[in-house]
Amino acid sequence: QVQLVESGGGLVQAGGSLRLSCAASGRTFSSYVMGWFRQAPGKDREFVAYIIWSGVGTAYGDSGKGRFTISRDNAKSTVYLQMNNLKPEDTAVYYCAASGRATATATAYAYWGQGTQVTVSS
Q1: Average pLDDT of the chain?
Q2: Which of 17, 75, 99, 105 is deepest in the core (most CB within 10 A)?
Q3: Could you give the angle at the alpha carbon of 55 between the alpha carbons of 67 and 27, nearest 5°?
Q4: How far, in whole angstroms, is CA 14 from its chain's centroid?
């Protein structure tokens, strides 16, 4: 079992920045691929980014390319999502998740946090 707790969400103006954190506990954090997803009201859950166990390999969904950066600190069992130049369409609940493989498919992630709300005002 892996327990995940997100933090860092909030209200920000368009063009601003936020850094989300996801603290993990339980089984060996460093062995998992960590991902971020988001879900806006009335929309499907959307892939944002993932990072492999070493931190070297990353992938991003189209919505965050060039603006979002995922990173991880295995010593702290924490994964981060730095979000810059935020837009109103980035408003959503952001979830971190853990998977045994590198994929953008949400169903492959076995463990999920409770989510943190990000609201971007225009």
Answers
A1: 95
A2: 99
A3: 120
A4: 19
